Amino acid sequence: MFELKIPKLGLTMEEAKLVSWQYSSGDEVKKDDPIFIIETDKVTYEVPAPSDGIIHPVAKTGETYPVEETVGYLAESREEYELLIQEHPSGAGAVEEMAPLKEKKPVAEKAPPGAVPPGRRIKASPLARKMASSHGLNLAEIKGTGPGARIIREDVERALEQREGAAEEEPIPRAADKGFPGKKARETMPITGIRRAIFDNMFMSLSRTAQLSLHTEACAEALVGLRDRLNKQVRGEELRFSFNAILVKIAATALRGHPRINASVDGDEIKVWEQIHIGVAMESEDALLVPVVRNPDLKSIREINRELNELIIKTRENRLLPDDLANGTFTISNLGFADIDHFTPILRPPESALLGVGRIVEKPVVKEGEILSQAMLSLSLTFDHRIIDGAPAARFLKAVKDIVEDPLLMIV
After folding, report:
1. Has residue 121 been placed in a domain?
2. Phi and psi (nearest 5°) for 347?
3. Rounded to whole angstroms, how far apart are CA atoms 98 and 90?
């Protein structure tokens, strides 16, 4: 018999929400099959079966449990499973909730969102399940196009588009939503999980800090040239260098020269951190995550580039762990991919500074009395004016600009 517990996914994790069970009580599972899904304030995670066996949930979904709390059991035989049911009656609620559909009385009503027909388990990613549930879609009616016919985000979006297309001809009620006469919501999304964390953190950021932003532009000719030279050295399966990898190294170098930017407020004290850990904002499905590159001031651009690419893959595949997102001291948010020139980034508490990066664009500039075309890069620094004064912040941003324009300063 195996106890199924809430796993500790990182040093900072203390509890998690039990989102769903992937099997009903009495189902046989294989080793490494995802058997239940948990959610922290940063990530969702599919917990695999430690062995082959028969599952017996004892904890209800939707509840939050501390790390190492037992939420179910895995019996190694049918006899052991029967004993588990008798020894753990407290799990009756969970067992009833997840009982095999063949034991339930048939009903004529339409199956609820995410319902599973008898004898069939729906393969779907955690995000697809959440999207289907929040939009009232039945997973059993969606065709999966992922690996092994697994239902993924694109499948749910396709089903939503089909439903919206069919609903376009339907008249909109005069008072479609209670409390909002004359308006009908296209979709309603609960503020939970990662979105709740973003919701709370952004409100806390603006309500508890005195934020000020400085803006400048840097000539990006040398930056572009450095990236091109680095990519010419790429061999075999080595990953091409990104601007973000170089910018992380540039920011780390500037922070080492201006350590008080690398600080946080802790009650009535200012903590100036010895370590430099730089987060890079990344889009993950319908949320913004900031995985952290640790000690980039001590690493080469090649090492940073490799680590960043690993974090990108984990973000896309929803495999980030809480430790991947913890203990950042500074953040970079690059919106150049979306052709954004300037923007005002918002701090990520408890960090006290964040660098916003726009696109690289050709602009006319005057140099030695002549009008030339140069690649220019916009830079924005948002900082907490409670603990960082304007002049030190300006000097730090100038240091970043100087290194962008002359990357050799990184080795001086």
Report:
1. no
2. -60, 155
3. 14
Residue 89 shares a structural domain with residue 236: no
pLDDT at 166: 66
The confidence score (pLDDT) of residue 118 equals 44
**Residue 292 contacts residue 281 (beta carbons within 8 Å):** no
Query: Are 376 and 237 part of one and the same domain?
Result: yes
How many domains is the chain partitioned into structurally? 2
Write out the catalytic residue numbers: 385, 389
One domain, residues 76 and 216: no
Whether 182 is covered by a domain: the verdict is no
Omega within 30 of 0 (cis) for the link into 7: no
pLDDT tens, position by position, 53-75: 999 899 888 888 999 999 999 99
Full residue range of the structural domain in which residue 310 is found: 211-411
The mean per-residue pLDDT over the stretch 238-267 comes to 95
**DSSP symbols for 150-217:** -B-HHHHHHHHHHHHHHHTTSPPPTT-BTTBTT---S------HHHHHHHHHHHHHHHHS-EEEEEEE
Residue 111, SS3?
Answer: coil
Nearest residue to 358 via CA among 332, 383, 384: 332
Query: How high is the pLDDT of residue 356?
Result: 97
In CATH, what number is assigned to the domain containing residue 385? 3.30.559.10
Start-to-end C-alpha separation, the chain: 60
Whether 136 is in a domain gets the answer: no
Q: Which of 61, 78, 99 is the last residue of a domain?
A: 99
Tokens of 376: 């220019």
Note whether 216 and 397 are within 8 A (CB).
Answer: yes
* 158 in any annotated domain: no
* Range name among 36-45, 325-334, 385-394 with the lowest pLDDT average: 36-45
Average pLDDT of 167-182? 57
pLDDT attached to residue 185: 83
Using the 3D structure, point to which of 59, 76, 99 is the last residue of a domain: 99
pTM of the model: 0.69
pLDDT tens digits, one per residue of 313-359: 999 888 888 889 989 999 999 999 999 999 999 999 999 999 999 99
Whose tokens are 């932003």? That residue is: 213
